[in-house]
Give the backbone structure.
Amino acid sequence: MTTPAHDEEPHLGTHPGHEWLYVLRGRLRVKLGDHDFVMGAGEAAEFDCQIPHWFGAAGCGSVEVLSLFDKQGERIHLRTSRR
């Protein structure tokens, strides 16, 4: 997924499952519980989604991230029908 830069305050959320993030391009800001850090291209993170979390572009550029969920985490995604 590609996320553009924005200046909104992060809203942390939780859901069942685990998530894996891999930064393909740009810089990714991650808020995970009490931690707030920035990841660069080639870096990866894995975490329990029951920990309050948020991630988005860091700085003024967009970020491209590969995000994987385990089986439980896929329930949070909405799917739309094709027209």
User: Anything to note?
Assistant: The chain has a mean pLDDT of 86.
